[in-house]
Design brief:
Keywords: Carbohydrate metabolism, Glycosidase, Hydrolase, Polysaccharide degradation, Signal, Xylan degradation. Its EC number is 3.2.1.37. GO terms for molecular function: alpha-L-arabinofuranosidase activity; xylan 1,4-beta-xylosidase activity. The protein has 20 helices and 27 strands. It is α/β, with parallel strands linked by helices. Among the domains are: 181 residues, TIM Barrel; 216 residues, Glycoside hydrolase family 3 C-terminal domain (Rossmann fold); 129 residues, Immunoglobulins (Immunoglobulin-like), CATH 2.60.40. The strands form eight sheets. It has a six-stranded mixed sheet, sandwiched between helices. A five-stranded mixed sheet has the order 18-26-25-20-21, with no helix packed on it. Helix 10 crosses helix 11 and helix 13 packs across helix 18.
Amino acid sequence: MWIKRAITLSPLALQHVNFSFPDCSPGTPLSANAVCDTSLDYWTRATSLVAEFTTQELINNTINTAPGVPRLGIPPYQWWTEALHGVAGSPGVNFADDVEAPYGSATNFPQIINLGATFDDALYEQVATHIANETRAFNNAGKAGLNMYSPLNINCFRDPRWGRGQETTGEDPLHMSRYAVKMVQGLQGPNQDELRLAATCKHYLAYDLEKWDGVERYQFDAQVSRQELAEFYLPQFRACVRDGKAVTLMTSYNAVNNVPPSASRYYLETLARKEWGLDKKHNYVTSDCDAVANVFDGHHYADSYVQAAADSINAGTDLNCGATYSDNLGQALEQNLTDVETIRTAVARMYASQVRLGLFDPKQGQPLRELGWEHVNTKAAQDLAYSSAAASVTLLKNNGTLPVDGATKVAVIGPYSNATFALRGNYAGPGPFAITMTEAAQRVFSQATISSANGTTISGTYNHTDAEAAMQLAKEADLVIFAGGIDPTIESEELDRATIAWPPNQLQLIHALGGMAKKMAVVQFGGGQIDGASIKADGNIGALLWAGYPGQSGALAVMDVIAGNTAPAGRLPITQYPAEYIDGLAETTMALRPNATYPGRTYKWYSGTPTYPYAHGLHYTEFKAELAQPAPYTIATAGYAEFERVATVQATITNAGQRTSDYAALVFARHTNGPAPHPNKTLVGYKKVKAIAPGESRSVEVEITQAALARGDEEGNLVLYPGKYELELDTEENVLAKTQLVLQGDQTSVVPWVKGDMS
């Protein structure tokens, strides 16, 4: 097997540029071109501009580090800008060297997996809007591009070892689809002709592996059934492109059923452009960085780089992150493997996004062009970074230890006790500040004596000397907080995990501290889950919280939850499996459904017992609920299944406890309709309910659509089956209410498989 050991990305792709705006003022080379005429539509303007490019100028501008066209006054542009959870280090962002200088930092919001734990659609859009405004401020200063490569990693978190699962909202495609739409709307704004930013849906398609057992993402061929493409791998991309109206779609490194997406006419032209409407606004497709080269050297789908470049641009990959296009499209033209008009259309699509971003328009009348350094890390952004982190904190275990009342001596122990960088997760830029767990304890428990010690490292050998020093601090404390878990040295891009167990050195210290019979809480950091079964079972450990990568103010948010200043309401957006789940389980196996020798994947299909199930999350108060039974629904086809409402379920949530708290109302369906096997359950709708006071009852409506209830058949159709559907509010450990939904009529394909040549 051909193994691609490392990305071969050209240094050209990594170059930074000094951003500037095209000059349409009178007398300039551009002034006579229709691109400067704001009375015309964006496509006329873009095509008029690109019509003046020579063939070589077209080729030069098919790559992410685009040189522009100096003779026409088109400046260089870097199309690769990152802002996963805040403006981030990347070729398209030029931070000042001094973090305290203007444009030396940007707000570090919590990692996306944390946002997923909130199940709060409105929050996703709020965070995206702040990211867009800060990116605009950087762009106005010549320090960032406006065409984003993140934050929309919408590949579902299929395998718990995946190093980039932290960049996603979790393992459920309905949740991921709703996140994608809201995030695009926040990034791009309400006016499709006057964009804030150009958002990218990535990584298309079935990308959720970095490296496992010698197989790397660059040459991995994901074998996926049509049934599971329809159910799990495609819905969020359809939502992102069709419903969110994202400007850009990014192809992935891996192949899907022997075909690299960069070279797939089916996935790019048949599905994305024609079926989902990517071409309605002449939106463009970009490759992931070096993915066009992978068409040849990773997958051998093409027999040369020249053929790979031709196959990709002919299929509809407009922009190449890398230099494969600029190095090889000239030869492809000479060999009649592609044509100039195909290249011209690709470049026109890219520049059409710049017209819609207002780059060719006068500054006057564009409020976004007025944003500057004073609009970065504002008080509002800081408050949102804190509140979103607090909303994501998930209480996994609590034996009455939390919230803490009246601690006088607090020991903060563990490898996260004084961590700063690790709190951010991957794809983060320099933040304006980072509060450590120890500093947070000093602020929150201001009347107490605070001590701290690492006691051990993230991973590695247990050091008895370090551990004894930490235990001595714990001995003198009345509250012990262990802050540990995993960090980006364990999970990140190009780094999948070999185990999903807690690092044994940390676990040894945790249980030793528990044996001291102190009031003790364990805080688990990291994006992927680690098996906390022994912590769950240890009666000496009173509480376990998951904090993910909570960002610049995340430690303070966690400490406020421990102290009871904030009530926890987060939900696990992924299943916490027992450590042995991965024993003998190939990460390359893409199937979801279990069989006699295969345990299945995600909460829908896993045949074992999780340590903590998907959507688990405890509260400091007690909730009670009722679900009103919806009217029967007669199956019919009408419009998009994602918008065809089957039922509106009224949920009445009552806070029967003593503390004000948020509550994520999650409705799951169980049924045995249609052919076996049947999923364990399926998330069919959710609604975030804020600040329910003690004694208060709140009624909310949870919409259930055809697509939420439909299942894939073996041909790839999403089929809605008649029968009884048992609806449950909350997880199997804590079902608060049940009702039944009846579907009448005949089984119907509500999202038919789109036919086409997939070769």
